[in-house]
Amino acid sequence: MRLVLLTALTMVAFAANSILNRMALAGGHIGASDFGTIRLFAGAVMLAALCLVLRRGLRLGGPARIVGVLALLVYIYGFSLAYGALDAGLGALILFGTVQITMFAGGLLSREAMPARRWLGAALALSGLVWLLWPTGPVQVSVRHGLFMAAAGVGWGIYSLAGRKADDALQATAANFILASPVGVVIGLALPVDAVEIALPGVALAILSGAVTSGMGYALWYSVLPRLDASVAAVAQLTVPVIAILGGMLFLGEVLEAKTVLASALVLGGVAVSVLRRRG
């Protein structure tokens, strides 16, 4: 039960990242690349401080470190670039669909046992997500931006797979953020300049996203990943868009529709079928 609660808390942190990002960009408070860079640095500072206080030092090495750093960078900047043209719903669909494919592939390559109910649950949850997030009008997808989001999904899937090898979740996450930050500055400078001026609310939201819901949230994710099968971790993340929609209702005044309720129930039901074990 404790593992389920920790995983659920992590999914709430991931959903909060989407809400904070949406609040900052939709409000015109900051550009996408600036948000990503500040988010990365805020996470690095918070995690470094926690390591110095709780671990009495920093350890930047460890298993799969280079993979973790590169995957984190691909995720953060692929995500930022993609939302320059993609709808929030379609972007989330591409992201989490790609994450699921990447992590299922990782599980298969590591010869992880995948019972039929896990495949069935994953299919149900993914179909619910498609129904929930697919645009109702004509779909016009920028291939370039769609590829950016697909790259972000692969990056996050690989980042999660690398986290299963972490022996100290806090140190591993701190090392990823700290080593990624200087590279992030170079990437941020190389990206096209955002036409949006940086305002204090945007900076505050980026810091909150980086320090709390990304830095601490990812450390929590790394703490539960070694105890989850790759396929289970992949399916669990399909709940994030559902939680983000509920958060949008609470914090952004978004309207709840019958389709949202039914599709969300399908996603959560599919996750339950895939993740929960039979007794007896």
Automatic annotation (TrEMBL):
It is a multi-pass membrane protein. Its main location: membrane. It is found in: Membrane. GO terms for cellular component: membrane. The chain crosses the membrane at residues 36-54, 66-86, 92-109, 116-134, 146-162, 174-192, 198-220, 232-252, 258-276. InterPro entries: AA-Vitamin_Transporters (IPR050638), EamA_dom (IPR000620), EmrE-like (IPR037185). It holds the Pfam family EamA. Residues 147-275 form the EamA domain. Keywords: Membrane, Transmembrane, Transmembrane helix. PANTHER family: AMINO-ACID METABOLITE EFFLUX PUMP-RELATED, INNER MEMBRANE TRANSPORTER. This is Membrane protein.
